[in-house]
Write a structure and sequence with these properties.
The protein is an all-alpha fold. The protein has three helices and no strands.
């Protein structure tokens, strides 16, 4: 993998993580680095799921893939925020 691929993956992860965080209602008390990490993981898993469904490579913007990635990021942010707050209180 080239450095441009890594940088692109981080940028996409930041955007997906931010969108996932915006979709979840309320305030999430998790650090930004954790949101970015969740976004990167959600982008990778979402791409794999979209490829398995056969909707990863379409003409133009891959809206279905984007929706899958944001939904996974929202789920990840929601679960992590709940676990992170419980762990910090203990």
């Amino acid at each position: 993998m080239e450095i441009t691929g890594i940088i692109s993956g981080l940028i996409i992860g930041i955007v997906i993580g931010a969108l996932g965080r915006l979709v979840v209602p309320g305030r999430q008390r998790i650090p930004i680095w954790l949101t970015i990490l969740i976004g990167v993981v959600a982008a990778l898993i979402g791409t794999a799921i979209a490829a398995a469904l056969g909707v990863a490579d379409t003409g133009g913007i891959d809206w279905i893939e984007l929706v899958i990635q944001v939904a996974l990021a929202a789920l990840g942010v929601s679960l992590t925020a709940g676990l992170y707050v419980k762990r910090r209180r203990e």
